[in-house]
Amino acid sequence: MKHLMIAAGLLSATAAVAADKPQLTVYTYDSFVSDWGPGPKVEEAFEAVCDCDLNLVGVEDGAALLSRIRLEGENSDADVVLGLDTNLITAAKETGLFAPNSVSAEYALPIEWSDDVFTPYDWGYFAFVQNAESAAPANFRELADSETKIIIQDPRSSTPGLGLLLWVKAAYGDEAPEIWAGLADNIVTVTKGWSEAYGLFLDGEADMVLSYTTSPAYHLIAEDDASKAAAAFDEGHYMQVEVAAKLAGTDQPELADQFLEFMVSDAFQEIIPTTNWMYPAVTPASGLPEGFDTLITPKKSLLFSPEEAAEVRDQALAEWLGALSQ
Amino acid sequence: MAGRAQPVSPWPGVGAAALVAALILGTLAAVALRADAAGGFGRADWVALRFTLVQAVLSAVFSAALAIPVARALARRRFPGRRALIALLGAPFILPVIVAILGLLQVFGRAGWISDMMGLFGLPPLRIYGLHGVVLAHVFFNLPLATRLILQAWQEIPAERFRLAAQLGCDGIAMFRLIELPMLKCILPGVLAVIFAICLTSFAVALTLGGGPRATTIELAIYQAFTYDFDLGRAALLSALQLALTVVAALAALKFSRGDGFGAGLDRAIRRWDGGAPALDLFWIGAAAAFLLLPLAAVVISGLAGLFEMPALVFRAALTSVLVATASTAVLLLLALPMAMAVATGRYGVLELSGILGLAASPLVIGTGLFILIRPIANPTALALPVTALVNAVMALPFALRILVPAARDVVARHGRLALSLDMSKRTFFTRVLLPRMRPQIRFAAGLSAALSMGDLGVIALFADPQIATLPLQIYRLMGAYQMQAAAGAALLLLLLSMGAFWLLDRGGRLHAET
Amino acid sequence: MLKLDGCLIENGNFSLRADFTVETGSSVAIIGPSGAGKSTLLEAIAGFRDLTQGQILWNGKRISDLTPGKRPLAMLFQDGNLFPHLTVEQNIALGLHPNGRLSTQEQAEVQTALDRVALPGLGDRKPAELSGGQQSRVALARVLVQRRQILLLDEPFAALGPALKAEMLDLVAGLLAETGTTLLMVSHDPQDARRIADQTVLVADERAHPPAPTSNLFENPPPSLRNYLG
To answer: Is C98 within 8 Å of B424 when comparing Cβ atoms?
Structure first.
């Protein structure tokens, strides 16, 4: 065990960095901190202005992130949590672990934003992504009537999965079970997370996969590949708004506020589109990267308020399980 | 010899087992104690329990049943490349789940190779999703393990027995009844229990191949309890249920597999005199190879293109994984050898139980429990790698014990009296008799553990630090960043590393498996 | 003097009583019907089996509480007398030092023992490369270097041919004479007993009878021995 500790010590060079500078610890999801995510650039940009050490800690995904904060409770190491979405806000607030902030900005969100605890940093629309040349169904009913095969994620283990659940619920209300029953024969399979689903889609296992309207932008910009497109559904698209908040128990309240201010500034927002592949919450002065203009823009934006989302979530899940477990 | 002096001391093994049990039960307790309210079972949990049991039993039975003819064919045929084939057949077992799913579906999926071929004849694509798909995937993962375990037992039958049977003029069936059936009765319960336990904790494979929420397992319910509901009480309860089921399976296996070793034989090369039907053996070897190697080939083919697109980070992650696997293998041997020795003294068979618990323990519960326990003392993130190595070792422990225990038992039975009469110390018996006599099994166990540890995501995702990633975690990160091709390349690298580690460590076993 | 003092050995339904002494330096054959407990008796003396009652004494000192390796005796089993992965030399060396390396002088002793059992130059071989007779000789060489006061033979030569077995027994007899070792050997064959043992213990009817002169016993066998001899 001793040798293991030494090995760990050798490998984790993070602990001993800059003891004299104040340290701001931000918990976020794993793909944010990965080398292809916004993490490294955000760290560099913020450290250039804050005279501090920004310590990003990655935790699986948004839901796991909230669980981690609940697990750590009041003496959490985190000063800021970045990466929850509107579906988690109510549960997050109930913990009483988060503190309000005074950040305000000209949000480019299709909805009004007024929460004083949770500050949005990016957003996107859930959508089914397919090969650009295929004919796309215009809504869930058409999809259900078609032979189109789709892969979706499980709402119990995946953020997009939960998003789809609420999408159908927001668009169809009490008719949601009927929609799911109709979709049952279109669903090839349900995966644990986004990666499995998207990988299977790229391997040709299905015609469409649940992802984001911004997914085709990745292929276009990073791979110069225009072959993927998101299908525009006329009942509207459900939104995901990703937010961050300051922990009430932070020992760096000013630094945390500074980070949240920084988060809605251009320096941070410019990084988001081509690393997190989402829309920035505040459109930076430089505008959106080329390629984002090719994306579909839903005619209608759907989003439950955090309170509504918390309320309908369990019923929607029961309906989903009921319809797909036959 | 009962009640009398033993050439080995059981106490280090008892200590190791206590440590493992403390780790598994302690983490479970840590989670349970952290819960605000006692969680209860809902109707959905019972449905999940039923599905989990059905798929685990079917997976275990099919894996073991198919492994028997394959192991038998491999045991009695000698052909060039036999060893390489045996090593390669083990590969599915060590693939990260996400890679294996993609590989499997490239062969058996709707757009897979088989469906493509059927399409040429105007047939509809294969319908892989459903209970049969779950079982197929689990057989894919576990057939190699079952085959290796049974093959090893086969090769441990003293050559003298086959000689005797051959001299008696036994044909294939008679030889099977006389020698092989008793061996199988001895080994199969353990094999079934191990695979059953592995499949109990299946989650992503069961869900994806099962085609949706019909295929909800207990492990998914645990995940849901943790992240979706944050109901720690329910998570702990479900995890305890998994452990209880595994203990029941393991106890049943211990009860049924009690049997003597195969007595003493000299170190003669194994030769068989029963001809059997070469065509039949060829069929089984060919079928198993095709079933296991085609998805691997798919992994390799998709990986080749990505191999040159991998960022340098992948190589750093690979180095980290090699370190973790090395540490994990060392820890494993430190735990498994003493435990195997303790079991070999004949009085501590129950120790194997604590070993098998590692299989059924939900990684999520162990990881969360460790997190709760470590946090007051140290920064869990800084300990990500040691914790990953430790948990990987505990997860590999049951396999190592399955491999080591029969051999240790045999060595103690064969040489214990002589060592005692020579007044050999326990330490000398360990270094001069047990270690050299068990070298093939130790190498096999070490190879398996290194390969498993290399490919297992384990608990690192719960502790991860942006700067530190093992290769499996890096694969997930690549996939999460749309970089499917680079991820496929990294998966191929992982496959090569795992197989390389296995090959390197197990090479000494060549003597045993007799090329 | 080896004294079995009111010994009772039990194992399930099986039981065996022994209450006799064996003089130092004598050679005792143990004969009796199969299953009567000949090997069991030896195992109890060697320490592989517990006594239910009684004690075993050597020269007045109680040895029945000692572990097998601490008793003043060496034992050869029916099989498994050599470690197959060690060379002949290494196997013999274990008799001198079960736990350590040998000094130069002790290495010479191993060579002497090899010479004594007529296996010079085979020290580097592994047991599997030797014939059955040669394997027995190696085991005897190890017994020789062990220098124990009692030798227990549980039919180690049973698998050898008559001529070879006779040769081995003669070798044993020679070694005993040189060292003054006390011998107890299980045997099926009255010839063996006559060849090497002046005394014989008959194990029958749940009892190990006190040693009697071998020639007398075979000339006037008691009923149980008569049945066995046929």
So the answer is: yes
Average pLDDT for B492-502: 90
Work out the end-to-end distance of chain A between its first and last CA atoms, rounded to an integer number of angstroms.
50
Instruction: Report the alpha-carbon distance of residue B360 to residue B238 in Å, rounded.
Output: 11
Task: Give a yes or no: residue B365 inside a domain.
Answer: yes
What pTM does this model have? 0.85
Class of domain A21-123+241-286: alpha beta
3-class secondary-structure state, position C161: coil
pLDDT for B35 equals 82
Q: Is A28 on the interface with B (CB under 8 A)?
A: no
At B105 the pLDDT is 92
- Burial degree of A112 (CB within 10 A; 0-12, 13-18, 19+): exposed
In the structure, what pLDDT confidence band is assigned to residue B509 with cuts at 50, 70 and 90? very low
CA atoms of C75 and C69, how far apart (whole Å): 10
pLDDT tens across C139-148, in order?
999 998 988 9
Closest CA–CA distance from residue C69 to any residue of chain B (Å): 4
What backbone phi and psi angles, to 5 degrees, belong to A199?
A: -60, -45
Counting runs of H as helices and runs of E as strands, what totals does chain A give?
14, 12
For chain C, the residue count is 230
- pLDDT cut 70: percent of chain B above it: 92
Q: Do B212 and A149 touch (CB under 8 A)?
A: no
Architecture of domain A124-238+294-324: 3-Layer(aba) Sandwich (3.40)
User: How high is the pLDDT of residue C68?
Assistant: 86
When the pLDDT of each residue in chain A is averaged and rounded to a whole number, the result is 91
Please give the full DSSP string across A164-223, using - where no structure is assigned.
Answer: HHHHHHHHHGGGHHHHHHHHTTTEEEEESSHHHHHHHHHTTS-SEEEEETTHHHHHHHHH
Residues A25/A250, Cβ–Cβ less than 8 Å: no
- Partner residue facing B213 (CB), from A72, A198, A325: A325
State which amino acid sits at residue C206.
E
Torsion sign, CA atoms B414, B416, B419, B420: negative
What pLDDT is recorded for position B40? Answer: 72
What does the pLDDT read at residue A8? 46
Structure confidence by residue, pLDDT tens digits, B205-236: 899 999 889 899 999 999 888 888 888 898 99
In 3-state terms, what secondary structure has residue A296? coil
Domain count, chain B: 1
Domain ranges of chain A: 21-123+241-286, 124-238+294-324
Q: ipTM greater than 0.90, yes or no?
A: no
Amino acid residing at A103? V
Torsion of CA B474, B478, B480, B483, to 10 degrees: -170
In a domain, B4, yes or no: no
Q: Exposed (0-12), middle (13-18) or buried (19+): which is B132, by Cβ within 10 Å? A: middle
The whole-angstrom separation of Cα C121 and Cα C135 is: 14
CA of residue A189 relative to chain centroid, distance: 22
Determine the pLDDT at residue C61: 94
Report d(CA B233, CA C195) in Å as an integer.
79
Is C98 close to B427, i.e. CB distance below 8 A?
no
Mean per-residue pLDDT over chain C, rounded: 90
Among the partner-chain residues C49, C80, C85, the one whose CB lies closest to the CB of B4 is: C49
Chain B positions in Cβ-Cβ contact with residue A35 (cut-off 8 Å):
311, 313, 477
Q: How far apart are CA C47 and CA C74, in angstroms?
A: 11
What domain range includes position B448? 11-33+45-273+280-513
Confidence label for A282 from pLDDT (cuts 50, 70 and 90): very high
In Å, how far is B43's CA from the nearest CA of chain A? Answer: 11
**CATH number of residue B255's parent domain:** 1.10.3720.10
Of B419, B421, B437, the CB nearest to C85: B437
Q: Looking at the domain assignment, is residue B5 inside a domain?
A: no
Confidence of residue B276 (pLDDT cuts 50, 70, 90): low
